[in-house]
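The following block was generated as part of the benchmark described in Methods. Ligand: manganese (II) ion.
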Amino acid sequence: MSSAIDLHTHSTASDGTLTPGALVELAAARGVEVLALTDHDLTDGLDEAQQAALRCGIRLVPGVEISVSWRGGQTVHVVGLGIDPTHPELRAGLARLRDYRDWRAGEIARRLEKAGIPGALEGARRHARGGIVGRMHFGRFLIESGRARDMRAVFRRFLVRNRPGYVAGDWAALDEAVGWIRAAGGVAVLAHPFRYRLTATRLRELIDAFRSSGGAAIEVVSGHQQPSETAMGAELAERYVLYASRGSDYHGPSESGPEPGQVAPLPPRCRPVTELLNG
Ligand code: AMP
Ligand code: MN
Ligand code: MN
Ligand code: MN
């Protein structure tokens, strides 16, 4: 898999800051030849991205990043690649998650209001511009209103456990999310395995559960990780006989993290997940 492949990115359809078309154009300009758009819990950006990909002469892999609650309290993300976004089971599953997300947005705002921060729902909605509302949109509102310096600080001070705007996730079960992706003809990828800060034992248990549910790949290279983590990811892929994915998790020029495609190559012994994607 060359550096021309990026299988994890976001657009304004969820919490990215570039439209799907602008994202594809930027990725193509950066030399990306195979790009997956993987917005959170929805596929609304895929049509526009596909049109732009045809224009730019690159290949778009239709994707999604599904929010999962594992063992109750732990949120994890499962990326679906090569999905048919019109598949009814996937559509119904994602619609349920968006209903929960809508409720959660109101709840986050109520909690922030209690903590002395009014107007957060309106502020977050303004940043979401009619799309789904996520914590990044609250983050942008909190930064713009001077409550935190940057996104890291926003999460640390307001949006994680034991902080005023925290709401425990109630997302899809792991086997549901993997099931929806497979029903829609896609490949399920465990996203950014080192972002969850799990102990080694818990991470192994998560990967076991993911594999038993029909998960096929793991993100060995992700935009926000250390080289040592990439090496551990490659080991996990080998040990659990999983295909390896690679993605920047790009959210836009205003956000931290690497540009589309600008992440480390897959370690040589990995089996690239692109082998499972037709076309
Ligand atoms: P949500 O799905 O609305 O709960 O938001 C999750 C998103 O917030 C992730 O996809 C990241 O884009 C972002 N995020 C989560 N944790 C952090 C963090 N500690 N710092 C910056 N962004 C974060
Ligand atoms: Mn995000
Ligand atoms: Mn994620
Ligand atoms: Mn992501």
